[in-house]
Amino acid sequence: MSSAAQVLKQAEALKASIGDSSSNSHETWVARQHLQDLYQKLLVIDLEYSLDKKVEQDLWNYAFKNQINGLQVQTKDKQNPNRAEIQASLNLFLETASGFYLQLMQELSSAFKLDLPFRRKTSHFGALKECYPYYGKIKSPKKASCLYICQHILVHLGDIARYLQQIEQAQTYYRHAAFLVPSNGQPYNQLAILEAAKGNKLCTVFYYIRSIAVKHPFPVATTNLEKFYSKLIKDSVEYRGKLSMCEFVSTFLQFHAFVHLCTGKQHDSGMP
């Protein structure tokens, strides 16, 4: 059994013990920390194997996302007298998650000698040599795999910033992610979510469509676009007289929403 397979076996056992739990118990916290370390090591020593086993997705879901979801639910419970304390715990956990992914990006960039346009090399800070934990022999990955994992990290850094209400920072991360691999749709979907929160309807539709129209579309964007179109139609109002620019854009988008949703229904029913 390869060293990567052995590390994955340990990680799978830990993952099973954590499950979908959002528990704050000491045992769960220690297990989650250990799982982060194992997945981090896996991604560095054999990136191709890790991506094949979807390690990057399990890292996000089991080490971070499930816990974030659990804390977010508790902060929305207005009957909970400990909401402020839970919100503080959530913010701290999010800051920790952001630090982890920034460190992971640094380690991967150093290990694979990646020259990323948005990353400052350690020489800028006075260090003479790039340093990262010694994991033994590292298998050289394909460039496409390196770019994919960096994009994946940037997207989740953007998600974390968004949860912290750091909207400009989230937008910066998402744009860097889109720049790295323009043919992948997920960063555009995340940018659409930001624009929807701002109330910018035109940019929301643009980014959802961009997320779908690339070589590797993000499937969730199709559902998100249809939900947004349905909301536009439901919120439609009748305008009289000369339209303002804002009213014109709203009418323009509502027209596209009607066409898109009606065309979709005809396609589903098999109508010509």
TrEMBL record:
Residues 170-258 form the DNA/RNA-binding domain. One of its GO terms (biological process) is nuclear-transcribed mRNA catabolic process, nonsense-mediated decay. Residues 54-168 form the Telomerase activating protein Est1-like N-terminal domain. This is Protein SMG7-like. Keywords: Nonsense-mediated mRNA decay. InterPro entries: DNA/RNA-bd_Est1-type, Est1-like_N, Est1/Ebs1-like, TPR-like_helical_dom_sf. It comes from Lingula anatina (Brachiopod). Pfam families: EST1, EST1_DNA_bind. GO terms for cellular component: telomerase holoenzyme complex. The gene is LOC106161516. GO terms for molecular function: telomerase RNA binding; telomeric DNA binding. The keyword S-adenosyl-L-methionine does not apply.
